[in-house]
Amino acid sequence: MALGHGGHETENIPEGEPMSVDPIDTTLWIHIFVQMLAFGILFPLGMVLGIIKSRWHVPLQIFATALALIGYVLGHLHRGRQFNPNNVHAKAATPLFFLMVAQIVLGVYLKLHLERGIHGRIRPVFRILHSINGKAFPVYAWVQMIFGGITALGFCQGEHLGQCLAHFIMGGAFIAYGVLLTILLLVGQLWLRRTNRSQEFFDSAVIAAWGCVNTFTEHRWGTAWVRNDWQHTTMGVIWWSAGLVGVWLSKDRDGAPKRNFIPGFIILITGWAMSAHPQELMISAGTHKMFGYTLMAVGLTRIIEISFILRDKPGVSEDGTQTNSFQYIPVFLLYASGFLFMGATEEQMELLAGSGIDHVAYILILYSLASILFLLTMALIHVYDRANPIAKKPTADGRGGEESQLHDANEFELDGLVSDDEDEERAARRKLLRDDGLEEDGPATPSTVGRNSERVA
């Protein structure tokens, strides 16, 4: 299948080049848009519908699979621009489709509700595999779409590979950070509270780990040190050293979770360093400078949010359902900074320099892409949130109490971990809640009050 992709008229490809000079034809454009619709929108939406156990999960996944197969065929039938059959997009397509087929097989098996004999032992394993693969599918799809763009333009070849990897991995990491912050901001505050950790603990731990990697990988050891080596390596050092400080500050003197400024500070100083990178082309200098300014704005607004908007509190409201409009600013800017960095590779800058477009128009395009992805992420979270409302249960004085909020938190989290509404799963959930002393016996039963009093005592 990999040999078939782009193997129609490979003699048109110049020697040593990744593709021919022909334009992209209509069939290939249709392939691109069909796959973006299937893998970029429908499969992620189907994943959310599966988490909330919607009846539309199976029909949508069937429709998305049919579209993906059509797009796959179109990718082998196009004319116009031809590609080296060993390109990364073609190599990654086959494993991706095997994973898609495996997901379908697992889903069909679970839908049959086979529970007797050996099925009783293997069914829980298949359920976990189906859940993990389904939740990871948007990540697979994102990587494959990036590979598609790289292949279509013939980028990241030869000596350009290293800086290309750096831009796409780091830019993708900023976007992933933005997605995670969006989830935590809108639906993850109660989960975060149950971990007994502040958000800065996780942020600082990841930053420290990433800094250790950068410290020892940004310079090719055994060769002479150049200016960029010094900048990238010392940036790794500040990441792990300040990251460890953030981990330390994430607990107060009594061991309770504590907010701190360190992740915002690290992002701010990283943006300052990136804005000072020397560039040869004017459009490259303008794009990198805007990337640095955007990243500095992320760090600054994050510090303001924690210190002045939330005043070191986990969130605006105790039940984790309220947000302040200012909290969206650093999250959105993370998406924008990720797209700016991914769109600032050497080959992209050379292509744009010869196209007549200036850095202002290009930056506006990248901000537009960030806005679309931000909107899509919030829409998917909204679908999940509407199916799992965190309702306050009234106490004796008519207000929602802490116990009812913890009960809702348990329900909220456990619902996302199951794929079928089966009796044994519901029983297991009730047992878990009963073990925590959070399950109510009935609307007029005094035993719940007694247990709650014992827990308080």
Automatic annotation (TrEMBL):
Pfam families: DUF2427, Ytp1. Residues 141-384 form the Protein YTP1-like C-terminal domain. It comes from the Eukaryota. Residues 394-410 have a biased composition (Basic and acidic residues). InterPro entries: DUF2427 (IPR018825), YTP1_C (IPR018827). The keyword Membrane applies. The chain crosses the membrane at residues 28-51, 58-75, 95-114, 135-155, 167-188, 261-278, 290-310, 326-344, 364-384. Residues 393-457 are annotated as: Disordered. Residues 13-113 form the DUF2427 domain. Keywords: Membrane, Transmembrane, Transmembrane helix. Residues 411-425 have a biased composition (Acidic residues). This is YTP1. It comes from Staphylotrichum tortipilum.
